[in-house]
Every structure is written in structure tokens, then in C-alpha cells.
Amino acid sequence: MLLINFFFLPAIFFIGIITIYEDIKTAKIRRKWIVLGLLWSISGYFLLYLLGTLRLIDYGGINYSYIKDVFINTFISIGIAYLLWKSGIWAAGDAKLFIVYTLLIPLDYYSKSYLPYFPSFALLLNIFIPVFLFIIIIALFKLIDIAAYIFKNRNQKKGVLILAKETMVKIVAKIRGSWQNLLGILIGYSAIFLGLQILMSRLHLRPIWIIMLMLIAFRPISEGIKKSRGLLLLTGIILVGYFGYKVIYHQGILELIPIFKSLICLILLFGILKAILNLYIKYTQVDKIDIYNLRPKMLLTDEVIKGFQKEFRGFKDALGTIYPDGLSESQTELIKNIYIEKGYKTIEVYKTFPFALWMFFGVILTLWLKQNVLHIFKQY
């Protein structure tokens, strides 16, 4: 194990530091560091295999089980990284960097919370949990600022009440105008949750897999359900049939209570997290820039995109898909031309988020703890 550490740990720290620097400075992770990490890991394992075959080192024989575990872990990591990219959770560079880290981190560093087939799940948790905690803390401070503002301006109570009333009216109008979206979200949650529960009982998976797969699968599946009324209806019928079957052929309505409780808790949890995330993004991650300064790789805010879609017919088809990596050159030019033609001078974009920094922080946590941070919380 010392020899594996000797090969891989220097590469982890070098690639981690250089990608953090470039991500902060240029908001991108260059391909050459990804290639370097992949070549380093492949070369390292090949060299260890060669040394073991020539008996220049002796680990009691070549550990084919370890090699198999590395392959399976890498294969699953590639799938997870792709799905997270496709879901818009991180950019392509971040996805590739995660794959590099899963290859470079020896499996021994997951020993205290080793998850069969996908031990790098510990790394995934160690990346995202600190990010979520950071976002929650910043969002709470922002809420405190808002509360302090309201308290200081309590003499303008009438104005605050009017603002609250207008906000509630907008929320109600949004709910009325997007019942299909809300129904799609509810059915999407239910379908994914129940499907994963069935898989968990059949495949004897741990409950943590439900949370992970819910996070990954929810957005693409719910979006598909919301866009197609036929699929929405079909999924709804399947769910009603499932619940009906449970009531008639099993223990009746009482058996469904734990399922509904878990489902409601999960929906509330995801809803709260989304509200906190939206608050954080709205007040800390939005920049208003001159339209002439719009560049490829920048990300437009959701409000800007929705405004485009309402104002210009066929805009969505003309623009195409905006990936988490940001605007393409053609998309940038299209938006610039529209804005300049309409006389708009500024546009709102999201600030870049140096995710490579948080990813490396997750790597350090994994190397230090040899487990995911949830296991630390469980001990207390």
C-alpha cells in the first residue's frame, strides 16, 4: 500500500492544486490535466502489475480482486459523473476530474465506510456535503439580513405586508399556471422513490443508495414526465395501480402509511434544499454585465431564459440545449444579436463557482478520514 501511495498521492495533490488555480483564474479545467491524471493512474497500475509479475515487489501475489474492484468502481464513477453532468449538477470538466480522482485514490482510503462496487461514493459525499453546508450557511446569513432589514424598517410595516401579499399572489398564480409541472414533480418523486425501494428490497441495497439515486435520477425523469402528458398519465396510472394492489392484496391502507411518510419527508427535504439553493443563487451568484461582455462558457440565469422564451417564439429551438459548461459561441452570438437589436444593454449571468476547490476539499477529507463524513456524524 505504501508503494501505491507513493505512485498516486503526488499526482492527486499536483492535479488538485493546479486545477483549483486554473478553475478560479479561468473558470475551466483544461483537458491536459485530465489526460495527465488518466495516464498517470493507468501507468501506475500497469507498473505495479509489471513489478508484481516480475516479482520485484511482493504483495503475496497479484491481487486480481483489487484490480476488479478498481474497474467496477471506475465504471460506476463514469456513469455517475455523466448523469450528474447531464442533470446540470456540474460541468463536464468537473465530471472528468471526479473520474480522475476515483482512479488515483487507492481503495484503501475508503476502508472505514467501504461501499461494495462503488467505494468512491464516499468521495462523492465528501464533495457535496461540505458544498451544501456552505450554501446553507450563506443562505441562512442572507435570511438573517433580510429579517434584520424588515425589523429596522418596521415602521414601514404596511409596505412589507404589501410585498408579502404580492409574493403570495405570484406563488399562487405560478401554482395555478403550472399544475402539470407540479403534478409531474409529485409523480416523479413517487415513481422514483417506489422504484428504488423495490430495487433496494430485491438487490439488498443500502438505504443510502436511495438518496444518491434520487438525487441523480430525479431531474431527468421528472422533466421527461412533465413534458409528456401521455407519460404523466401512464406513470400516474401505474402508481395508482401499485397502491391499489398494496391495499387489496396486502395489509390494507396501514401498509401505505410508512411509504407516504417517507415520501413526504423526502419531498419536504428536497423542497427545503431547493429553496435554500435558490436563495443562495439569487442573492450571491448573479451578476449583471454589459451585453458586449457576454462570452462563451457563461451561464444565463433562469429568469433571462424564461424571458426569452416568452418574448420570442421559437427561441428555445434556435438556442438549443445549454449545457452546464455554459454558452457555446453560436449561442452567445445569437443572444447578443437579439439583445442589441432590442436595445437591451445588460444581461444577468451566473457567477462561476470554483467547484474544483470543493472537489479537492472532498479528496482531502477522504484521504484523511478514510470514510464519508456522514459516518462521523453517526458516531455522535
UniProtKB/TrEMBL annotation:
Superkingdom of this protein's organism: Bacteria
Signal peptide bounds: none
UniProt keyword Membrane, yes or no: yes
Transmembrane feature ranges: 6-21, 33-52, 64-85, 127-151, 182-200, 206-222, 231-248, 260-281, 349-369
Keywords: Membrane, Transmembrane, Transmembrane helix
Name of the molecule in the record: Prepilin type IV endopeptidase peptidase domain-containing protein
